[in-house]
Amino acid sequence: MRILQASTSYSVGFGISSISTRPKSFTQRHSTIAEGQALDKPVQTTRKFSEQHTLKKGDVVKEGTSVVLEKKDFAVPRRKAMALIFSSLVLSNYELPKVAYAQSTEFREYIDTFDGYSFLYPRNWIQVRGAGADIFFRDPLVLDENLSMNISSPSSSAYKSVEDLGPPEKAGKGVLRQYLTEFMSTRLGVRRESSILSTSSRVADDGKLYYEVEVNIKSYANNNELAVMPQDRVARLEWDRRYLSVLGVENNRLYELRIQTPEKTFADEESDIRAIMDSFRVNKIEV
């Protein structure tokens, strides 16, 4: 019997210039858990409503060949759910989804044993295939909110530690540079504004060093880029997003967990985003 552990800590990461997009067998990439398999110890995640919830033995579900560990502690009891519905009648339509979301967030763990990494993600997020990343999940309601995993090519990288990128500040500049390269546009009248919000490092409970980087990028576009007169070319904000990355090194490869969210919703979603970042781990591949 294989013992799996969902882990917790906080982190942020780095853009990678050389990303492997080689196809691989789906059944080869994901581990499976037999029914009734247990976890070796509880896992804690700090939630929005200032309570500690623990992933207990038996909180395991299996979807196809993917391993997902389900946090059932976030389920709202029926009596409390009814009370919430009736009390929410006095709230506006705008406030009600916020209350429901704060009370019912659940997480699953995604484990890739082929490439050697794992992380938690919100249970209601859906996987998007063909997105160009190793794995890609998206919020079905807020399409600008998503996470993805990028990994350097095993044939062109020989990383020993995330410190090979230099200090966190230097890594942060690399992150921002990579994002701006990817978002480069050939449209007329498009302008980007960017800034590094924070860079840091931490040693997780697996003993490995991780870098965290947060950047903000705004995109502006002229409403009439072909207008002759400058006053007719008014720049308007297209989008304003926060990008959070977690960097780790294992198997001589650089791993980057990326999270994207609209800046206007970041404050409401920050607790969940931090939990995802905190859960990211790189693991040794068993040959």
From TrEMBL:
It comes from the Eukaryota. It is found in: Plastid, Chloroplast thylakoid membrane. Residues 106-282 form the PsbP C-terminal domain. Pfam families: PsbP. GO terms for cellular component: chloroplast thylakoid membrane; extrinsic component of membrane; photosystem II oxygen evolving complex. GO terms for biological process: photosynthesis. GO terms for molecular function: calcium ion binding. NCBIfam families: PSII_PsbP (NF040946). This is Psbp domain-containing protein 1, chloroplastic.
